[in-house]
Structure prediction request, 74 residues.
Amino acid sequence: MKPISWLGILLIVLGALVLAYQGINYTRQKKVIDVGELHVTKESHETIPLPPILGGLALAGGVVLLLMGAKSKT
Prediction:
């Protein structure tokens, strides 16, 4: 398989994941109190939103690259 086809497959997978999850979730821990043996932390759950248009563009670009890779093979 040509590298352009691999890149197309990768973009299709990434585009589908962006459309499915629509963001990246992570947990941040912050020290609130740190006195001697007393350690108190606070967890906050945050999200980095990813717009669906980004996933759609990646998916469409992956399909185009995959078709270009298949067409240049013949």
Observations:
- The longest helix spans residues 52-73.
- The two ends are 12 Å apart (CA to CA).
- Residues 3-73 form one domain.
- The first strand starts at residue 23 and ends at 35.
